[in-house]
């Protein structure tokens, strides 16, 4: 009988209990139970909301190396058909955070059992998918006390085969902002449109006009994305809608472009207010800083990967993906990399099925790299 890799089992356990941001109570309890099962001589642990800080003391520390994983799920109904599918209605680990956690626990376990010279700080961060846990976690007394000198993290990449590590120096992920626009006009009977201000029509016009920002206001050599992913409006088929709501996201490759795009959003919304005699309210929700990999540290990691015959290095392009790990990299030098997991379905898809073979790859690569950087001899 073949024994299952313990961290594959952990991944499957965690996959069944996805929870939304700052609601990861079962997840935190599971993580705590596992961490408490390890030898505790060098382990110190502090809770923050639904997240965790776990410090592993080194033998002769001169610095602290940080490793961060996110722990929350998404509001998606799973369609994988896996025997270990989500047990939580309309919630799924559709962005690989179950993988991220199991890998982090694998790395943590290795260094608890095989201590190195330097201290290690493992950060189990809630609410990456929203409303954002990295920035407030960074400001905590716990983080200030155990602040790492360098930090790293990974994200699964469905498009790359298992055994692939993809990374680049500098900008990796975009600046992102949520976008919510509420419109209020005047409702009424469908037979008397002249007596109303129809917010379904206003919303349709607004969506079309927002798309001109990227095509006509952003430098063609720059990049930006405005996506409206959800529109709600009206109540029934024979009542003209008094209210409508647009929900979307803005993504840019520079903070300056984000400011410009928001300025244009606000100008267009003012035009909709005037043209449709309505009221509009804009809410930018959660905003994430770009993920910018420290050039020197990332270059060292790339050279390390290139010398490992068991993995394939890919120099990737920057992506419009958003990640609040960018806030940590803004203050702590480090990097994030893509881990190939070979799934036919992409991130945030209800049928995302990453290959579990990637867990071993990640644990081996990360432990080897951290051991190299964290031992003085």
TrEMBL record:
UniProt keyword annotations, A-Z: Amino-acid biosynthesis, Diaminopimelate biosynthesis, Hydrolase, Lysine biosynthesis, Manganese, Metal-binding
Pathway recorded for this protein: Amino-acid biosynthesis; L-lysine biosynthesis via DAP pathway; LL-2,6-diaminopimelate from (S)-tetrahydrodipicolinate (acetylase route): step 3/3
Cofactor: Mn(2+)
Name of this protein: N-acetyldiaminopimelate deacetylase
Reaction it catalyzes: N-acetyl-(2S,6S)-2,6-diaminopimelate + H2O = (2S,6S)-2,6-diaminopimelate + acetate
Active site location: 70, 129
Phylogenetic placement of the source organism: Bacteria, Bacillati, Bacillota, Bacilli, Bacillales
Function: Catalyzes the conversion of N-acetyl-diaminopimelate to diaminopimelate and acetate.
Pfam families, alphabetized: M20_dimer, Peptidase_M20
Alphabetical list of Gene3D superfamilies matching this protein: 3.30.70.360, Zn peptidases
Domain Peptidase M20 dimerisation, first and last residues per copy: 181-270
Top-level taxon in the UniProt lineage: Bacteria
EC number of this enzyme: 3.5.1.47
Family membership: Belongs to the peptidase M20A family. N-acetyldiaminopimelate deacetylase subfamily.
Any single GO BP term: diaminopimelate biosynthetic process
Cofactor: how bound: The Mn(2+) ion enhances activity.
CDD domains listed in its UniProt record: M20_Acy1_YkuR-like (cd05670)
GO molecular function, one term: metal ion binding
Binding site for Mn(2+): 95, 97, 129, 155, 348
